[in-house]
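Write out the bound-state structure for glycine.
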Amino acid sequence: MKVLVIGSGGREHALVWKIAQSKLVDKIFCAPGNGGISEIAECIEIKGNDTERLLSFARKEKIDLTVVGPEAPLVLGIVDEFSNYGLKIFGPKENAAKLEESKVFAKKLMAKYNVPTADFNIFDNPDEAKKHVRRIGVPCVVKADGLAAGKGVVVAKSIEEAEKAIVSIMQEKIFGDAGNKIIIEECLEGQEVSILILTDSKAVIPLVSSQDHKRLLDGDNGPNTGGMGAYSPAPVLTEPVFKEIMKNVINRTIAGLTQESITYSGVIYAGIMLTKNGPKVLEFNVRFGDPETQSILPRLQSDLLEAIIATAEGNLSKFAKSGGFKWGKRACVSVVCASKGYPANHEAGKEIFGLEEVKKMENIVVFHAGTKRLPQSRAGKTQFVTNGGRVLGVTGLGNSIKEAIANTYKAVSRINFEGMQYRRDIGSKAL
Ligand code: AMP
Ligand code: GLY
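---
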């Protein structure tokens, strides 16, 4: 079959890499893709949010299945559009993508259906919001309602910091209309885990657990980023806690959506804080996590595409009965190598060295994010240059997290580009 993957990051490279291993696939396109993806799929120059052009491409090429990586196309209703034309596509429809598009929607749903989450209040008036912060005190968390590329959350340690966040989100509108409403919520303490599941609203199949590292610098310091690395499994997530999350978070959320006449199909990614009062939801995403996916998919021994098709067709329970996912026992670590200046701004066009050598290393795969492949040199050499903030996800497997960390950092040490920055402590929380 012909598959189209939408997106251009490390997550999409991991998806394309895994889908390419399926017996069911004949040809993969990726829109717009990146340097690394262009080695295993045909990249087409259409942006993920250009629904109209993607639709006409899929119709012209007779694409059998489209897999959406990022949230933006989902929120724009790409699944509704493709479905209207009878094209098979993996991901939630626009009404279900609200779970990520609007934190107010997600919070109200959780409150109504008793899904454990931080206590919260919703505001559409900045003065009321400031008054509330002074009343409850700090620490507190200020969140823009809408999409803000992971930058719409401020964990405020002082009243001034909280007020500044309120002003910039609601009055200066740094995220535009995404800041018309805000949430102010209780600050939770604990370790974070990412729980990803597939669902067609009738059946639920979990993926293995993982943990992201959102801060730029070692020891969880510095500004928030899109994610500087991930590992899987997350040993803090014990079996009883996992069961509790499935029951109280995942099942209640899907049942709640169903009550609201919303059929959810695709991935639900729950960001969970493991607090001393039990697991609580920080946020929902309606897609695979980035960089979590890069640390999850190398552990999958069975065919991802079969599961994706079953989800899109509403046949997930049949897939589960026929054995479901098969996971390997080995642990996986993925370290993000980022450009100088990331996350505020970033350089581009820097040559990346060492990829050929790392390709020969066992237990290592490098997922590209912000890279571009240059035309082959006369010597037949493939050259990549940086083309984004997060450049590579260097990923390694090992018999333990410790071994996976060692394998991965050995590979990282072979890779270099001007201004490259990365965290030295990815996975160390698991030790
Ligand atoms: P979100 O995009 O909602 O997941 O928030 C981004 C990050 O902010 C999370 O990964 C947490 O590290 C932090 N965060 C969000 N909500 C809270 C909360 N209620 N308490 C403490 N930290 C939070
Ligand atoms: N790893 C964070 C995210 O995918 O939103």
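---
The pocket of glycine (ligand 2) is lined by residues 150, 212, 227, 285, 289-290, 292 (CB under 6 Å).
The first helix runs from residue 10 to 19.
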